[in-house]
Automatic annotation (TrEMBL):
Lineage: Bacteria, Bacillati, Actinomycetota, Actinomycetes, Kitasatosporales
Membrane is among the record's keywords: yes
Keywords: Golgi apparatus, Lipid-binding, Membrane
Compartmental location: Golgi apparatus membrane
Protein name: GPP34 family phosphoprotein
Pfam families the UniProt entry points to: GPP34
Topological relation to the membrane, as annotated: Peripheral membrane protein
Species name: Streptomyces daqingensis
Amino acid sequence: MERTDSNSQLTLPEELYLLACDMETEKLTKRDVMGNVLRAAVLVELTDRGCLTDDGGKARPVGDRRTGDPLLDAALRGIAEDKPRKWKAQVQLQRKHHFKTVEEQLERARLIAIERRTWRYDRIVVKDQALVKRLQAEVGETLTSGRPVKDYSTRQAALAALAAAGQFPTVISGKDQRKYKERIKALTERAGEAGPALKKALNDMQVATMIAVGAAISAGSS
């Protein structure tokens, strides 16, 4: 599936945020991992635009290039000013900031409307549902078609791979996660260094959560 003009005007992080929106329940799914997914998407897009490169397993800025997007350029400056870090460590940085910035950018563009709520999750209303449906269809085609993974652009592969890594229920079921496991792996590798790094970071987070829950249960029973 070729990218449409309306799709291509969005950044990869913005597309992934929209993909995680459940348009029926008007909620954002996978909030617990969204910051990591969006940060990985930022790294993928910066790499795809030639602003970042891999240097011995670490992310390194290329010259003084800029994208013109506030979030991407702020992330690039942060990486340039920081010490060199491996990709998995990069995925774990600035997660809350990226989440907030992407949400604000989509709100300003009037692609979503947010009802801030104190005791419940915010209500997220998607204004351009046709756009989100096109993104969902693109991810579905990327995951399930017989086309070789190499035929997809880095960005297309990343959109599907990061949605799968985040386990977005809006675009991929648990059954499809298992059925297309090998293709997801290939798409993740096609997405570049930030794709596998996100998978590792999410695995580490899941293990840490399980350890914390186990420790709490043990403390409560002692």
